[in-house]
């Protein structure tokens, strides 16, 4: 499907979803500076041809303007004439859409996901076991164990994008960049939001658990 064939109401619905999610996440402080990016796919999906709305580069996500978003194709190129630039990490969105066929991708920077991704960076994944919010990923085993992938945070975004397809775990709808942030996705904006919130809970839980373990180890030597 060409971009011109996508119905106007579908495009408007994607922009409305992005506005609502952006406002919510900004209220939580998940977009420090102008960091983070959000996207929602529009129209039919084919691995070789798809389109999505994405946040524009360099925008303050705590406010709304008429130039917050633009539409791009499967290679991250604008679908319409515009002076806006897509977020620098749009190529990473392209690879996630291409690999998963998902409907929305949300990327945020938080203290917890930065600390945890750096702590486990050399290991290449964040281990999580028996945490209730793992169920948000439709993993229902008792004391389930998951590994959330971590990629190096290269300054060269295409270099990161090249690593995405091999790093993705079909069972885990998220991937971390070390000391940078989390990308979470879902079949639609609602599911992507649920997954992102679950990841952030897991990261905060894991961080606090590490602190408690350190405090217990210190107290046992006193």
From TrEMBL:
State the GO CC annotations.
cytoplasm
Record protein name field: Methylthioribulose-1-phosphate dehydratase
Instruction: Give the protein family.
Output: Belongs to the aldolase class II family. MtnB subfamily.
Write the Enzyme Commission number(s) for this entry. 4.2.1.109
Q: Where does Zn(2+) bind?
A: 107, 109
Checking Pfam families in the record gives: Aldolase_II (PF00596)
User: What general EC class does the enzyme of this chain belong to?
Assistant: lyase
Identify the gene encoding this protein: mtnB
Give residue ranges for domain Class II aldolase/adducin N-terminal.
16-207
The answer to whether UniProt assigns keyword Cytoplasm to this entry is no
> Which keywords belong to this entry?
Amino-acid biosynthesis, Lyase, Metal-binding, Methionine biosynthesis, Zinc
Provenance organism: Paenibacillus uliginis N3/975
Family annotation (InterPro entries) = Aldolase_II/adducin_N (IPR001303), Aldolase_II/adducin_N_sf (IPR036409), MethylthioRu-1-P_deHdtase_MtnB (IPR017714)
Instruction: Tell me the pathway.
Output: Amino-acid biosynthesis; L-methionine biosynthesis via salvage pathway; L-methionine from S-methyl-5-thio-alpha-D-ribose 1-phosphate: step 2/6
